[in-house]
Amino acid sequence: MPAASRILILALVAGLAGAQTFEVASIKPSAADARGMNINLEDGGRFITQNVPLRFLIIFSYSVRDHQLTGGPEWMSSARWDISAKPEAPLTRTRADQEKVKAMVRALLAERFGLVLHRETKELPIYALVVAKNGPKLAESAPEAKGPSLHGGRTQLSGTKVPVALLAENLSNSLGRTVVDETGLKGNYDFKLEYLPEPGGMFGKVQGAEERAQTAPLDSELPSIFTALQEQLGLKLESKKGPVEILVIDKAEKATEN
């Protein structure tokens, strides 16, 4: 083995040895009658999931959107998992510690699910979020407001003290396509958006057929997300092409219970 390769491998091993990991982690299939999904970081850093598919765990830990994943077996979206993992040392809810948790989850997925993936960048269709013809209809947040805070469901998204760039990121989930902020708006805003979900969004992909059948029917009077953005927020989506980072799933196996 060339000396340069040995140095690189030693550096990687040293980096992994110094990284914090979960001290203990329990992974088991979710109950057949479980409904909904939950990912929670408890005080002290314990990572808890209920009824969560591997696909969503990858999205969470790699900070990507559903449309940025390709490849892998079909069960990644249908099989659900309950996880309880305790870190070696206590963690807080700060952004820095949340990123540590994501790194530990990535290591856990590689170890227990045999997850192997690689990154590619492709020129793909995207949406540019721009200001509509009659101007924005966003309410600027009060300086003392707490945030940013986003809450949403199948048919609505509401925000407090949210920058438009963060709104664009979340629209990507509903549209199944990357959305980039080209509004030029620099403030923080409060808003409520009500719309019919697009069929290609993440909600449909992580739900099983039986669960979708039991979901309450949608209000057909709601506008499409494209119309809702213009009428309710004074913003518009324009189709274009741009570079998108893709995670290609090379290998994934169902975790064995421990």
Q: What is the radius of gyration?
A: 20 Å
Instruction: Assess the beta-strand content as a share of residues.
Output: 25-35%
Output the helix-strand order: HEEEHEHEHEEEEHEEHHHE
Sequence stretches where pLDDT stays below 50 over 5 or more residues: 1-18, 203-216
Global geometry? globular
- Taking the alpha carbons of the first and last residues, their distance comes to 37 Å
Number of helices: 8
Quick one: biggest sheet? Answer: 4 strands, antiparallel
Question: Structural class, from helix and strand content?
Answer: alpha+beta
Read across the widest sheet, the strand sequence of neighbours is 1-5-3-2
Q: What average pLDDT do the residues reach?
A: 85
Q: How many strand units?
A: 12
What share of the residues lie within helices? 25-40%
Oligomeric grouping of the chains? single chain
Key attributes of the depicted protein:
258 residues, alpha+beta, four-stranded mixed β-sheet, 31% helix, disordered N terminus
Outline the structure in words:
- The chain is α+β, with helices and mostly antiparallel strands.
- 31% of the residues lie in helices and 34% in strands.
- It is built from eight helices and twelve strands.
- The chain has helices at 3-18, 54-62, 75-78, 95-112, 164-175, 202-206, 209-214, 225-233, and strands at residues 22-29, 38-41, 47-53, 69-71, 80-87, 116-131, 139-140, 149-152, 156-163, 179-181, 188-194, 235-251.
- The strands form three sheets. Strands 1-5-3-2 form a four-stranded antiparallel sheet.
- Helix 2 (54-62) crosses helix 4 (95-112).
- The longest helix has 18 residues, at 95-112.
- The model is unreliable at 1-18 and 203-216 (pLDDT under 50).
